[in-house]
Amino acid sequence: MPTHVNDLTRVIIGAAIEVHRTLGPGLLESAYHVCLARELELERVPFKFKWPLPLEYKGLKLNKGYEIDLLVADSVVIEIKSVASIHPVHEAQLLTYMRLAGMKVGLLLNFNEAVLKDGIRRRVLALEE
Question: What is the pTM (predicted TM-score) of this model?
Answer without folding.
Answer: 0.92
